[in-house]
Design brief:
Belongs to the peptidase A1 family. It is built from six helices and 31 strands. With 436 residues, it is mainly beta. The chain has a six-stranded mixed beta barrel. It has a four-stranded antiparallel sheet with strand order 18-17-24-25, with helices on one face. Strand 17 and strand 18 form a beta hairpin. The longest helix is centred in the first third of the chain and has 24 residues. The protein is globular.
């Protein structure tokens, strides 16, 4: 897909192939303060996804995972002061779409983690297993690592857990529960984490060593918590920034997750906002949209965070489809429909209500969709960031969906092909297209 005029894109209508390819990440001189992981899309790691009956089945499975995640996030924000158990992101529903290859322990054991900006706790499956699911790599055995150290119940990091307990030996136990009843529990400990295939190690990282992991987890060894809380990986390594670039989820290409690297000079900046009710999520100052170069009229205050902590817009690496409050979604959808009346329509698909039958069209022009941020900056989305294939029969759908709640979520379909950089020092998030 390429931009043909200021307000138009061309979209290739070959649903079983990636709509664009991405070059390898640019080699940079080694900086001791910079840490980097390789990122892989879910489809390149989990071969069973490629064995789905067809692309329609694969899409439906993805959307089911996605909806479970959104429900979990929405519930955690809707009741920020009523936690009886931690209700984090939807990774428990198997909704992780991007995996990082990370080394744990000494000697180093390389394994895959789901990256999640909607969670704080990093954890992985550990032997001995009371209940463990299938993962791509051997399950980590802490008894074989010289750098594994259980945390005591009296430690500050144990106290920072939302749910913790003491073992008979006085060591810290953790539990994280997810929205569908999935959970992970075990020992809370510190370990050495190795970045970049072994080029840099960071000791004393607090993580969960899960001996009982139940529910619909799949593939990865565990979860890498990139949220804004005190126990997240960025907080523990005192990162001033981190960034990622998500390749097309049907691609076999990879990219990087980086800490303390310079923000691309061409980044379109938006403010990161604080929600005093919850510090895990990254709230962004989204104010509206343009379609075909024209402003979309939405009510003032639609995306504001309320005094009760509800509302606002979060940027999330694990949610696929952007969810918008109906007050914003309906006018955005209507504006897009108005400018695509010449395209053959198709029936709605799962959560999508605006779809097109492009099976007989080799290339199609669609209006540019842009995100508007506080401060006046605008991010133009590529065509495959908002019009995506959902079947192997040439059906494409508008990749936004309404939510009945007050929280809106900027999902990873809209982030693909863009380096998203979180500057934790200046409280801003940058979007730099074509930096994978």
């Amino acid at each position: 897909m390429e931009q043909t005029r200021q307000v138009l894109h061309k979209v290739e209508t070959t649903p079983l192939l990636p709509t664009s390819s991405f070059s390898d990440h640019e080699n940079k001189s080694h900086q001791t303060q910079k840490l980097s992981f390789t990122l892989h899309p879910r489809s390149s790691i989990l071969s069973h996804e490629n064995n789905c009956e067809n692309y329609t089945s694969l899409t439906l499975a993805r959307l089911a995972r996605d909806s479970a995640r959104v429900n979990s996030i929405s519930l955690s924000v809707a009741k920020p002061h009523q936690f009886e158990s931690p209700l984090t992101s939807g990774a428990g529903q198997g909704s992780g779409e991007y995996f990082a290859r990370i080394g744990v322990g000494q000697p180093v054991k390389q394994t895959y983690f789901v990256i999640d900006t909607g969670s704080d706790i990093t954890w992985l499956q550990c032997n001995p297993c009371a209940d463990c699911y299938h993962q791509s790599d051997p399950i980590f055995d802490p008894s074989g690592s010289s750098t594994y150290k259980p945390l005591s119940c009296s430690s500050d990091r144990c106290a920072a857990l939302q749910i913790s307990a003491c073992s008979q030996a006085g060591t810290c136990l953790y539990q994280v529960s997810y929205g569908d009843g999935s959970s992970t529990s075990g020992d809370f400990a510190t370990e050495t984490v190795t970045f970049g295939g072994g080029t840099r190690s960071v000791p004393d990282i607090a993580l969960g060593c899960g001996h009982d992991n139940e529910g619909l987890f799949v593939g990865a060894a565990g979860l890498l918590g990139l949220g804004g809380g005190a126990l997240s990986l960025p907080s523990q390594i005192k990162a001033t920034s981190f960034s990622y670039c998500l390749v097309d989820r049907d691609s076999t290409s990879s990219s990087t997750l980086e800490f303390n690297s310079a923000q691309p000079a061409d980044s379109i900046l938006a403010p990161l906002l604080k929600n005093s009710a919850i510090n895990t999520y990254y709230y962004v100052g989204l104010t509206g949209f343009n379609v075909g170069g024209n402003d979309v009229a939405i009510p003032v205050g639609t995306f504001e965070i309320g005094n009760d902590g509800r509302g606002g817009v979060i940027v999330d690496s694990g949610t696929a489809v952007t969810r918008l409050r109906t007050e914003a979604y309906n006018p955005l959808r209507d504006a897009f429909r108005q400018m695509t009346q010449d395209l053959p329509s198709a029936s709605g698909f799962a959560l999508f209500d605006t779809c097109y039958d492009l099976s007989s069209i080799k290339r199609v022009k669609v209006p540019t969709v842009s995100l508007r941020f506080a401060g006046g900056k605008t991010l133009d989305l590529r065509g495959n960031n908002f019009l995506i294939p959902v079947s192997d029969a040439g059906i494409y759908c508008f990749a936004f969906a309404p939510t009945g709640g007050q929280l809106s979520i900027l999902g990873n379909i809209q982030q693909q092909g863009t380096r998203v950089s979180y500057n934790l020092a200046t409280k801003s998030v940058g979007f730099s297209p074509n930096k994978c």
